[in-house]
Amino acid sequence: MTTINSIEELKGINFELIPEDDKWSFGESKEHPMHRIHAYPAKFPGFIAEKAIDFALDNGVVLETIADTFCGCGTVALAAKQRNFNFWGVDINPVATLIANSKLHDYDIFKVEEYYKEIKSNLLGSTESLSQSSNSRIQYWFNKNTIGELSRLLESINTTAPEGKYRDLFLTVYSSILKTTSKWLSKSIKPQVDPNKIIIKVTDAFERNYNKTLKALKIASESSSNITIETNNFLNTNCVAPKIDLLVTSPPYVTSYEYADLHQLSTLWLGFTEDYKELRQDTIGSLYKSGSRGDVREGRLNQTVKQMILNLNDTNISKTRINSIITYYLDMQNVVKKIARSINNNGMVVFVIGDTEYKGIKITNAKHLVECLLLNNIADIKLVKRKISNKSLTPYRDKNGRFTKDKNARKIYSEEFVVIGRKFDA
Ligand SMILES: C[S@@+](CC[C@H](N)C(=O)[O-])C[C@H]1O[C@@H](n2cnc3c(N)ncnc32)[C@H](O)[C@@H]1O
């Protein structure tokens, strides 16, 4: 582990030369089946949360409350729950918090099975609801027959399961089948139609994913921990974190995923918004999130990224794009400031963050994060490089965003950093 205690030390560290650490690259046990109930892009493996908790305990953190300020589909939350710690998390994406909450509630399995039977039988008598299917984006992604099947299933869920955790559980299963039943190009991180896609029947897909979910619920353990998950922009003033002993999080990267776009099928069908693009607005790292232009903003950037922005200014990358990258770094500076205020003295933060590349220029997310931490009285920084297990076979993506072995394709990074820090008295 590389240790950094000051900005001076940080300047001398070459992140490229840090060796990979196998301990943080692989887990000792299989992923909890609960994490397979719904796919979520950029989810990190559950063992990272486990290792972070162990590391905090081994290093004397008095642990009561764990938090994740970008909680996604609830990976850290589930680890906290399993080990009986309180958890507070937030994510701006309503699809993420729907999935996360479904993984965390305790259910009466008998009731779940009864509701499922009723949903199936009500489906037989249900007539097609046209409210959702009139949306042009839905018509773009789904066949007419599938739209009818999905409308009837949604109606049946909403009329059978009462509002609350049981309905949300079935809506999560519903959401999990939307990509396979649409024309969405499988496993692509760029939303695009696959003209040759073999579309699975809605009822078959729903049954399959319901069974997977039920199996996961049957082995889930109950716990007395206090779990709160909010749907909000972490940077909003009305988003107030409690006092935290351990933060484990993986923040968004700039130029990486457009979360709002990737979840558009669920957002549209579940009626979270009429226009999924609205959700891009406050999503950190979105290339559509740009602020006002100008040197004033650039002047507020930390040292680590100032030179990189100057390099970008010398390329033909559009000013709007550069502006979104500046916005990302300013957002992350505010994120760390806000996190630092919530961490208890002697508490710990564990970030999982990777560098990216935009038009050949390296985007140094990890180094920037370390600088932000040091500037906010979080020190004793430990830096670990880990292999991204599911990207080990090939680090390239083709023009459709799918993994490829073609070395001329866009290179994505197959490693990332675990950045650990400790809060000390100001
Ligand atoms: C790398 S993912 C986290 C994945 C998570 N660790 C998991 O295992 O599912 C980053 C998350 O940040 C969320 N996000 C982006 N901007 C946000 C904001 N302003 N406030 C809260 N969450 C935000 C995205 O919706 C996304 O779920």
What this model shows, in words?
With 426 residues, the protein is of the alpha/beta class. The protein is 39% helix and 15% strand. It has two domains: 2-93 and 224-258 and 285-423, Vaccinia Virus protein VP39 (Rossmann fold), CATH 3.40.50; 109-219. The strands form three sheets. Strands 1-9-13-6-5-2-3-4 form an eight-stranded mixed sheet, sandwiched between helices. A three-stranded antiparallel sheet has the order 11-10-12, with no helix packed on it. Strands 7-8 form a two-stranded antiparallel sheet. Helix 4 crosses helix 8 and helix 14 (319-342) crosses helix 15 (365-375). The protein is globular. The site of S-adenosylmethionine (SAM) has 22 residues, from strand 3.
Mean pLDDT: 89
Assigned CATH superfamily of the largest domain: Vaccinia Virus protein VP39
Low-confidence stretches: 391-395
N to C succession of SSEs: EHHEHEHHHHHHEEHHHHHEEEHEEEEE
Number of strands: 13
Global geometry:
globular
**Bound ions, cofactors and other small molecules, one mention each:** S-adenosylmethionine
Strand order in the largest sheet: 1-9-13-6-5-2-3-4
Please tell me the CATH architecture of the largest domain by its name. Answer: 3-Layer(aba) Sandwich
Number of domains: 2
Distance between the termini: 25 Å
> How many separate helices?
15
Please describe the biggest sheet, giving its number of strands, its sense, and whether it closes into a barrel.
Answer: 8 strands, mixed
Under CATH at level 1, the class of the largest domain stands as Alpha Beta
Structural class computed from helices and strand pairing: alpha/beta
